[in-house]
Amino acid sequence: MTTTTRIHSAGEAGFVEFRASPGHRRPVAKRGSVEVVVIGHTGQVGSALVQRLTRIGGQRGLPELKFSEGINRSRHIFADGREVRELPRASGSLGELASRLGSRRRPAVIVDCTADPDLPRLYPDWLRAGIGVVTPNKHGLAGDEKLYRAIREAAQRSGAPLAYSATVGAGSPILSTLRRMRQAGAAPSGITAVLSGTLSHVFSAMTDGASLSEAVADARSRGFTEPNPLEDLSGRDVARKLRIMLREAGLDEIGIHREPVVPDAPARSASDEPAVKALLESLDEAWRRRLAQARSRQTVMVYLARFGQSGATVAPVCVAPDSPFARLAGSGNRACIEWPDDPDCPMDIFGPGAGTNVTAGAVLADLVEAASGLAR
Amino acid sequence: MTTTTRIHSAGEAGFVEFRASPGHRRPVAKRGSVEVVVIGHTGQVGSALVQRLTRIGGQRGLPELKFSEGINRSRHIFADGREVRELPRASGSLGELASRLGSRRRPAVIVDCTADPDLPRLYPDWLRAGIGVVTPNKHGLAGDEKLYRAIREAAQRSGAPLAYSATVGAGSPILSTLRRMRQAGAAPSGITAVLSGTLSHVFSAMTDGASLSEAVADARSRGFTEPNPLEDLSGRDVARKLRIMLREAGLDEIGIHREPVVPDAPARSASDEPAVKALLESLDEAWRRRLAQARSRQTVMVYLARFGQSGATVAPVCVAPDSPFARLAGSGNRACIEWPDDPDCPMDIFGPGAGTNVTAGAVLADLVEAASGLAR
Questions:
Q1: Would you call B173 an interface residue with chain A, using a CB distance cutoff of 8 Å?
Q2: Number of other CB atoms surrounding residue B317 within 10 Å
């Protein structure tokens, strides 16, 4: 079955088009065009990205981005200009991307907009075929050593661009700063960061007197948590982000000690919603005591990612109430990075840590950079 | 006269070498090498850069940086490996760089480590010859519209890299963020920034009760000011940084209103040190009153660069004492950037705004990126 649809590119509220100056309006030859394949094109970030792609247009000196395919769990669409053919997704459609796109002349970038833990296993094939990879998916870059090395290796050998600024801090310039400094021969001497808006919200609510189970229920009702909130409370997502930061800084071999909010063993056994609720309630009293203890010391508790002389940890930590890490606004992420060059003046980067628009913006910025590298 | 010297590359205190992981130590072919010509190689930033260049070594997947020439006001050195020939600088040595370097096969980058207001007039020639340009010198990028367009145009047409992250915030990721977002089609809706460590120091001292002339004398004795402190007090340097930020954001045509700490007309007439001192003292009383007024309103005064709906200004402004812009540590710079995508959660970037090591580090990071672009 084939259907034809039209992609709408109506102006999205809250997004200002680039206001080009007169000089930028002069017609000049664009540097080629780049095909963009979006996996997860119907998800939140994926659909926001596709909307922007159809609207952005080639800018002066930058290649044109052509959204050519979208693939989700069940459908595969092929776009040609604004006409779109939609087909059921064939089995093997992801596996054959490397050879199909790689054999064409036009440069291409695959954007993985999923949170699929297995899809990154295909990145090395794509990269080896000279296809760029852009993604907000943390599982490859934070994945096991072997996969991570294979991804890096493939990108380095083929020269195909690989970009993932949206994996940490939703595109705040945290990773780019670590990478630039590594390339210039410098490694950070310390990192302190709040990397989970969800955990900030939970700890902030507990500081205000809510129990753990109430705080989690509140975060969940606002759409801040994963479908299973124990995933957020495990600290694994924060550990992944710290892992990506450390790797970007060239510190590949640092072990990360993780202290979950809810212990791993009972979390694994809590298989349904009532079990999760019961587990959280069983921990309310212990967390009430920890928060009271923090308060008695004139501190507040936050969930921090840290790296320093004594190693790397993600854990609940007491900080002074006027610390920049206490009670961050909204889902904000903050990373404070110390450099041996100027230990008295650490770099401090704060930005929205999540959000569909912000993440899609970061992915698009990565995509433009990747495409520029390919179309050169 | 020709002398032969040896460049020392003894470990500089306070700088940690990149700790490569085992994977990074495997010998792989480097992607070519790039010649580096440093203008102002004996100045503070220039000599720190040359020291690092001799030490950094080619990193995996990155081109090797070969320091080949250094030029200052009187000398011209030619480096071949670690042997260096030093000659008196010939007239026209800068003018002939474009043709001499451009005619060779090896890719080259010129680093302008001066603060010379005229040297940037040569950037378009260099760029047109395919030579990369890296600089912490603000005068070209903040310069008059015609020169700025010529520089941009030359870089765009030739594809030669042009990098200047050290011009604003000493390499804090302020400019890279604005550029990335512009390329992705987004313009900031607001900017608030402290961009002068010198003015922060002066206003902080005045808040603590010093008079203007005392505050300036103190900043000067610590080496924080230009030889003529009226240059800092004019706000021109802050205006240049804001100009570079706005241009990077694609907002080329915004006028900047500048309110100096010392009015321009008497500042122009103060030709020697006693005249500068007398001028500052004549303004002590007026500034004492402004500071007292700020205090009576429970505010402190800082020198801010701002952009928003009502335009762009650099001026002394009253802020709340707990504002992130009040009393920044050391020479720290802070830029707060609002995006229409997430107006409630502006991005906030803080970092050391000055310092020889930090600036040289930013120039080196730019240089590595520029060289990667050339050696591709």
A1: yes
A2: 20
pLDDT of residue A245: 98
Amino acid at site B335: A
Q: Least CB-CB distance to A341: which of B22, B62, B358? A: B358
Average pLDDT over residues A113-119: 95
Give the whole-angstrom CA distance, residue A349 versus residue B346: 11
Amino acid B114: pLDDT: 95
Which of B66, B146, B241, B277 is an active site residue? B241
Q: Which chain B residues are closer than 8 Å to A19 by Cβ? A: 187, 250-251
Q: Is B277 a catalytic residue?
A: no
Cβ atoms A191, A306 nearer than 8 A: yes
Taking a C-beta distance cutoff of 8 angstroms, is the pair B252, A21 a contact?
Answer: yes
Q: Is B52 near chain A, with CB under 8 Å?
A: yes
**Element containing residue A162 per DSSP (H, E):** strand A162-163
Residue A368 to residue B183, Cβ atoms within 8 A: yes
**Strand order through the sheet with B190-194:** A256-258, A311-319, A300-308, A190-194, A332-338, A347-352, B347-352, B332-338, B190-194, B300-308, B311-319, B256-258
CB-CB contact of B192 with B304 (8 Å): yes
Is the pLDDT score of A27 beyond 50? no
Per the CB < 8 Å rule, is A15 touching B186?
yes
Could you tell me the pLDDT band of residue A31, with boundaries at 50, 70 and 90?
A: low
Q: How many angstroms away from the CA of B165 is the closest CA of chain A?
A: 11
Give me the residues of A, 213-242, that contact B with CB < 8 A: none
Question: Which pLDDT band holds residue A329 (cuts at 50, 70, 90)?
Answer: low
Average pLDDT, rounded, for chain A:
87
| C-alpha to C-alpha distance for B88 and A299, rounded to whole angstroms | 64
B306–chain A Cβ distance below 8 A for any pair: no
> How many residue contacts between A and B have a Cβ separation below 8 Å?
188
Query: What is the pLDDT at residue A358?
Result: 87
Spatial separation of the C-alpha atoms in residues B275 and A346, rounded to whole Å:
39
Supply the pLDDT for residue A14. 27
3-state DSSP helix/strand/coil % of chain A, to nearest 5: 40, 20, 35
ipTM > 0.85 (yes/no): no
Pairing, β B33-39 against β B108-112: parallel
Q: B351 and A347 in contact by Cβ < 8 A?
A: yes
**What does the domain layout of chain B look like in residue ranges?**
30-171+357-375, 183-352
Please name the CATH architecture into which domain A183-352 falls. Answer: 2-Layer Sandwich (3.30)
The full DSSP string for B17-80 is PP---HHHHS------EEEEEEETTTSHHHHHHHHHHHHH-PPTTSPEEEEEEEE-SSEEEEEE
Task: Select from B215, B208, B311, B296 the least CA-distant residue to B259.
Answer: B311
Question: Cα-flanking dihedrals φ and ψ of residue B135, to 5°?
Answer: -160, 145
Q: Are B163 and B367 in contact (CB under 8 A)?
A: yes
CA dist., res. A219 & res. A198, Å (int): 7
Which residues of A are annotated as catalytic?
241
Nearest chain A CA: its distance from B124 CA (Å) = 17
- A324-358 burial, b at 16+ Cβ within 10 Å, e below that, comes to bbbbbebbbbbbbbbbbbbeebbbbbbbbbbbbbb
Report the distance separating Cα A265 and Cα A268, nearest Å.
5
| CATH 2.60.40.1240 is the classification of domain A3-8+30-171+357-375 | no
Please report the pLDDT score of residue B102 as a whole number: 85
Could you state, in chain order, the average pLDDT of each consecutive group of 10 residues for chain B (376 residues)? 35 29 32 90 94 76 89 93 88 90 89 96 96 97 96 94 94 92 92 93 93 94 85 96 97 95 96 94 97 94 95 96 80 90 83 85 94 81
- Say whether residue A20 is in contact with chain B using an 8 A CB cutoff: yes
Q: What number does CATH give the domain B30-171+357-375?
A: 3.40.50.720
